[in-house]
């Protein structure tokens, strides 16, 4: 069983665009700061949330780095590449028809 937020698994993160990922990263870092503050003041009830937020942040960084290295495609550029291929095929079909 994986530790972390249920909505922030690798498949869901890979489906987000880079802007949404950076926004989610910012939110997760804010939550981690608040949890650490609660832990320092003795108000934190469950330490497991700290662990899951850290893992969520690591997953986000992993997806961003994979996109940077070209291992995983970004959602928006992948759609643009598909459109480019379709337009090239259409142009080639027109040329062949002439």
Protein described:
The chain has 98 residues and is mainly alpha-helical. The protein has a domain at 10-69: Helix Hairpins. Helices cover 77% and strands 0% of the residues. It has four helices and no strands. The protein has helices at 10-15, 18-41, 48-69, 75-97. Helix 2 (18-41) runs antiparallel to helix 3 (48-69). It is rod-shaped, with a radius of gyration of 20 Å.
CATH topology term of the domain at 10-69: Helix Hairpins
Give the SSE order as H and E letters. Answer: HHHH
Cα Rg: 20 Å
- Which parts are unreliable, with pLDDT below 50 for 5 consecutive residues or more? none
What fraction, in percent, of the residue positions are helical?
A: over 70%
Mean pLDDT: 83
Based on secondary structure, the structural category is mainly alpha
- How much beta, percentage-wise? under 5%
Could you tell me the number of beta strands? 0
Instruction: Give the biggest sheet.
Output: none
Q: Based on CA inertia axes, which overall geometry fits?
A: rod-shaped
**What is the correct CATH architecture of the domain at 10-69?**
Orthogonal Bundle
Please write the CATH class name of the domain at 10-69. Mainly Alpha
| Contiguous helical run count | 4
Report how far apart the termini are.
Answer: 59 Å
Oligomeric description of these chains = single chain
């Amino acid at each position: 069983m994986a530790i972390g937020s249920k909505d922030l698994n690798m498949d869901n993160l890979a489906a987000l665009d880079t802007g949404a990922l950076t926004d989610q990263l910012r939110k997760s870092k804010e939550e981690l700061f608040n949890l650490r503050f609660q832990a320092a003041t003795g108000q934190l009830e469950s330490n497991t949330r700290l662990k899951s937020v850290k893992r969520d942040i690591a997953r986000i960084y992993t997806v961003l780095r994979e996109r940077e290295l070209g291992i995983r495609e970004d959602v928006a550029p992948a759609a643009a590449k598909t459109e480019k291929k379709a337009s090239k095929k259409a142009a080639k079909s027109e040329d062949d028809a002439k």
